[in-house]
Amino acid sequence: MEKPLLDARFLAAGFLLLPLARGEGQEPTLEERLRAAEERIRRLEQELAGRRPESAPAAKSPLEAELEKLLAGTPAPSGPTGGAPSAQTGPGATILNPKISFDILMDGAIHSRADPGLFGDHDPQERGFSIPNAELTLENPVDPYFDAVVHAVLSVREGETNLELEEAYARTRSLPANLQLLAGEFFTRFGRINAVHPHAWEFTTAPLFVPRFFGPDGSRNPGFQLSWIAPTPFFLDALVSVQQADGENAVSFLGEPGGSVGGHTLVATDTQGLRDLLASVRVSSSTDLSPTTTALAGVSGMFGDNASGDHQRTQVYGADFYLHWKPIEARKGFPFVGWQTEAAWRNYDAAADGTTGAPDERLHDWGGYSHVAWGFTDRWTLGVRGEYANGEGGLQRTDDPIRDRRARGSLALTYYPTEFSKLRFEYGLDRASHLDDALVSSFVVQMEFLMGQHGAHNF
Amino acid sequence: MIATLFLLSVGIPPTPSAAAPRAPLRLVATLPNLKAIAEEVGGDRVTVDALCAPTQDPHFLDPKPSYMTRLRDADLLLVNGLDLEVGWIGPLTEGARNAKLFRGAPGYVDCSTGVSLLEVPSGTLTRAEGDVHPFGNPHYLGDPLNALPVADAIAAALARSAPGDAPLFEERRKAFRRKIEEAFFGRDLVENVGGEKLVRLLDGGKIDAALALSGPDGKPLSASLGGWFKRMRPLGGRAIVTYHRDWSYFTRRFGLSVAANVEPKPGIEPSARHREEVREVLERQKIPLLVTRPYVEHRSTDYLREKTGVAVLELPLEVGGFEGESDIVSFFDLVVEKVAGALEARG
Questions:
Q1: How far apart are CA A43 and CA A46, in angstroms?
Q2: How confident is the model at residue B216 (pLDDT cuts 50, 70, 90)?
Q3: Best residue in A178, A226, A450 for a mutation probing chain B (most B CBs within 10 Å)
Q4: What phi and psi, each to the nearest 5 degrees, are found at residue A156?
Q5: What distance in Å separates the CA atoms of residue B180 and residue B170, rounded to the nearest whole number?
Q6: Of A83, A341, A404, B254, whose CA is between 20 and 30 Å from B242?
Q7: For residue A196, is pLDDT > 70?
Q8: Burial of A252 by CB count in 10 Å (0-12 exposed, 13-18 middle, 19+ buried)?
Q9: Residues of chain A positioned with their CB less than 8 A from the CB of B116
């Protein structure tokens, strides 16, 4: 850039000096001056052209002619070879089809008791082999306004194959103000574990409090959810949802006809009005403590009528905390440490039950777990989990399998040949008052095989 | 106060006064290389943030919520594309609620558009082949000249987002192009022939013929050759071994060949048997150099070095991966010097 600038200054100086050079004797005519200036410009242009042969407007040099000949056989100048294939023109014939994946989980379990009292739908409930979760996932944009996600789950237990539509929802792509609306069948975003699919769990069993408060499969039902990311410099997410409150996936609310909670028979399991819907809120926030360590904390609440009588209320509250560490130069995601803790408690206002003799009362239940998953070397993780659940009130609580005092410890060693398969060995030691406070040991081998395009998991 | 909070909460910025300069465009790049190129093209009219650290494996980033916060406020998202980020970019764009950055939206800039790709699989493709990239090898910025089509893509996206600054972006894009061409071919050769022509001659396999031509000073053009190409040219035809297929674009550009990969399939660690096969290749072909990456196991490469005496060079793939460099040119200065030095040291 320097050279042309200098030349321009030189030219300007030439114009200024012109009258001075001819200053003595006769005054030059305007025509003479112009001619002299033109001559000077011509000389300067020649000089400039000599310095920059590339821009010389003269006839083609022999070099240029030779180069032209060589260039005649080369590709066009737009990029190295021009018209390169892009992701859109790759193997894209399937681009309008949804992403499809199928994930197979198989358990082989030995329990020291024939009936170990496991109530999660995806838990290894009996001795022997089972398919607790074989999940078909489809996802894709619907149109410019919605993305859709479907998780359909098959399971094989005691010779029976069951099919459940675990999630099927659409969510908006472009609502203003950082809002997102989700509608369909979905897992309630309560705490951390409830919305996580079984193949992404660190252990083979659901935490004890999940079947107690939500149902065997966790809390999920049709409805809608509105979530918002605050315009804060740190991550702050708030959401509210309204869902149907009946069936086996809402046991703390309307539940199933014929069921009972703490000796209170469920009598009003039909949805009558807005009060009978399940409302949830969750606020969570996260910050990076360092480039390698991230913390995430959240509080959740669920509110709705329960079916023990008319206008009986249930509230479930939860708090969760997650701390994750992974070095920058991790190899295929290892090593890492994830520490996750979650606690929940429930107030269940139960109407008097004349048949069982249960009084009008408020039942209290609480439970929680804390686990550490340590990816201690390439492809290997060690998981340690401790949990506790208990309650107050109700009839024969110590014999009630989903309200008794119970503690469990689990140790899981997992090997990941790739991120699409795993082999897990888990040992659990369990003590529940409904099982006479005897220690129950479980040894579970779990295998996972995931094929196809499966969306990445959330943090 | 409440009204202000409401306005802030729904994301409506206060009306700017006529005299206030427009704020720079906010860019988020997945990789440091893309950030480096975007900064060259955008100058002070952009701020660029990279999600991946220079020595971090871009295949295995965690979709941390803090990344969502950064994407929430971004005008443009620069991605490497070719499914390199497939393991984590989805939850981030979905969680960020920023419709500008969805795949297919104007703010989603796939920097691979315009790059001539290598190793695009044909025929049936399954994961039995390992961690395959169905659209082709995504490590295209191993070739410094691929920074040119990337800069073109970024400049076009910047001009779309800020048309008022388009002339500036175009000027800076040209300046960056010139900088890369001069670093690659040497300043004098670019003066004599023109950078674009040189790239075409190189891609068309005519560069040797061109360098034999007489320049304006009567000497062969090869006398004015400089830069990375001059450094690597005498080493053309040499074979090396790489850990992963991440130096394919570099080796093609400089006429090196890759005799074997330490990984038997992309993303799959070598078995003892495969390691022995690589050892045999190293010994039989007397290969002087094994290039590995920062975030893979060292057992295999240590073993191969011990058994065969091969020089093992750990090279980062991203700007900032070495000490003392912070842009594409200084990064490749080091890469070229290290590779050439190692090849020369072994005859």
A1: 5
A2: confident
A3: A178
A4: -125, 120
A5: 15
A6: A83
A7: yes
A8: buried
A9: 79-81, 84
- Name the pLDDT band for A83 (thresholds 50, 70, 90): very low
What is the pLDDT confidence band of residue A66, given thresholds at 50, 70 and 90? confident
What was the pLDDT predicted at B125?
76
Interface of A with B in 325-384 (CB under 8 A): 326, 328-333, 378
Place of tokens 């190793």: B119
- Dihedral sign (CA B321, B327, B330, B335): positive
Indicate the range of A9-13, A99-103, A408-412, B140-144 predicted with least confidence: A9-13
Q: How confident is the model at residue B2 (pLDDT cuts 50, 70, 90)?
A: very low
Say if CB A70 and CB B206 are below 8 A apart: yes
pLDDT at A59: 66
Residues 6+ apart with CB under 8 A from B193: A63, A67, B185, B201, B210, B221
**Tokens standing for B285?**
């072909």
Q: Give chain B's count of helices (H) and strands (E).
A: 14, 8
- pLDDT band at residue A63 under the 50/70/90 scheme: confident
Chain B residue at shortest CA distance from A53: B192
- The answer to whether the CB of B309 falls within 8 A of the CB of B279 is no
The answer to whether A190 and B22 have CB atoms below 8 angstroms apart is: no
Tokens matching residue A281: 């809120």
Distance of alpha carbon B95 from alpha carbon A98, whole angstroms? 20
What is the spatial distance between Cα B317 and Cα B177, in angstroms, rounded to a whole number? 20
Cβ–Cβ below 8 Å for A459 and B65: yes
From the CB of residue A390, how many other CB atoms can be counted at a distance below 10 Å?
16
Q: Which of residues 176-215 of B touch A (CB under 8 A)?
A: 191-194, 196-197, 199-201, 203-204, 206, 209-210, 213-215
Nearest Cβ partner of A235 from B65, B216, B297? B65
Element (H, E) at B174: helix B166-185
For the entire predicted model, the pTM comes to: 0.84
Q: What angle do CA A152, A154, A157 make, to 5 degrees?
A: 155
Pairwise CA distance, residues A286 & A294, whole Å: 7
Which pLDDT band, with edges at 50, 70 and 90, does A14 fall under? Answer: very low
CA dist., res. A102 & res. A452, Å (int):
7
- Beta strands in B88-244, from DSSP E residues, in sequence order: 108-110, 239-242
DSSP A371-439: EEEEEEETTEEEEEEEEEEEEESSSSGGG-TTTS-EEEEEEEEEEEEETTEEEEEEEEEEEEGGGTT-E
Structure tokens at A59: 């006839």
**Which A-chain residues 32-51 have CB contacts (< 8 A) with chain B?**
none
Cα A128 from Cα A118, distance rounded (Å): 14
Between residues A44 and B112, the one the model is more confident about: B112
- Residue-wise pLDDT tens digits, A260-279: 999 999 998 888 889 899 99
Cα dihedral A136→A140→A146→A149 (10° resolution): 10
pLDDT in tens, A172-194: 988 999 999 999 999 999 999 99
Assign residue A410 a region (left: φ > 0; alpha: ψ between -120 and 50; beta: otherwise): beta
CA distance A205 to A192: 15
